[in-house]
Amino acid sequence: MKAFMVAAAILTLVAMPAYAQMGGKRHQSDDKKTDAQKPKVDEKAYKAALERIPDPKEKYDPWGVARPADPAKKPKQNP
Asked: What segments bear the compositional bias annotation Basic and acidic residues (predicted)?
């Protein structure tokens, strides 16, 4: 009987993480409420907002901080 109780306890401990990952059915009703509260995306307004973004005057250089834009050119000196 003791071996049966130990086996049942081990089986329960092994099954608990798998049950926790499944999420359960009780939380699905909450998802429906959040979907209704999300604002609808208007494609025309989105495209109009993208058109209002001004074009950059100069090209963006992501490495501009790491290296100078105009490196000083020094001629090599022969020893």
From this structure: 27-61
